[in-house]
């Protein structure tokens, strides 16, 4: 179910602060991509839906580049060029259905929390098939409807899981759609990522309202949820900090050789 979210309107201004991850967690994601990517180096990588570039520079460092951060939001790209500049990274105007790269030009494509924003999946699969070389890998981090992992913030926003189950696609549907477009299922990797050092640190990020799911809630729901999380964070300050760990899925697909 595609629901449009306009990142140029507000989210571009809070995304970096609200979605920042500890350096060790970014490295953990790079490890996950590396163990599923082709072994040769350097690799040309498409970071599709690159947003503010929060992974683009790390991808360039790990795989050598060039890296193409393709993002439809002009303001998100502007933040990326300031917050995550890298000599091997180019931030380009484009979207999944129209990728501004030449045929068979990339070894890996990374889609990080992008699937649910794609309006025309069939066109996107066709474009990815076009720009990826035979044998290239597609690394897709997404939630999947009906099998969402537990998120800390669900405790404070009762409709969060319900909305995510509506917004995110089903895993079997994604595998089928990409399979029809020439991508074979390789596997589903898991990353137990540390998203914050403590609940207070988690709230400090979350209060910026950078999670797109919140855009589908009423202002009353958001205010009540934020107040409940703030209160829990204040209580947590009285105890030893407990890291916030979250399991995340990384779907691996491979472009057919022919």
Write the layout of secondary structure elements.
Layout: H1 15-19, H2 23-34, E1 43-48, H3 56-63, E2 64-71, H4 74-83, E3 89-93, E4 106-112, H5 121-131, E5 132-141, H6 160-167, H7 171-180, E6 183-196, H8 199-206, H9 219-236, E7 244-255
Parallel strand pairs: 1-2, 1-4, 2-3, 4-5
Antiparallel strand pairs: 5-7, 6-7
Helix pairs in contact: 2-3, 8-9
Written overview of the protein:
The chain is α/β, with parallel strands linked by helices. The protein contains nine helices and seven strands. Strand 2, helix 4 and strand 3 form a beta-alpha-beta unit. Helix 2 crosses helix 3 (56-63) and helix 8 (199-206) runs antiparallel to helix 9.
Can I get a quick summary?
By secondary structure, the protein is of the alpha/beta class.
Keywords:
258 residues, alpha/beta, Rossmann fold, 7-stranded mixed β-sheet, 9 helices, globular
Task: Decide which structural class fits the backbone.
Answer: alpha/beta
Strand content is 15-25%
Give the CATH level 1 class.
Alpha Beta
Order of helices and strands: HHEHEHEEHEHHEHHE
Main sheet properties = 7 strands, mixed
Radius of gyration: 18 Å
CATH level-two architecture: 3-Layer(aba) Sandwich
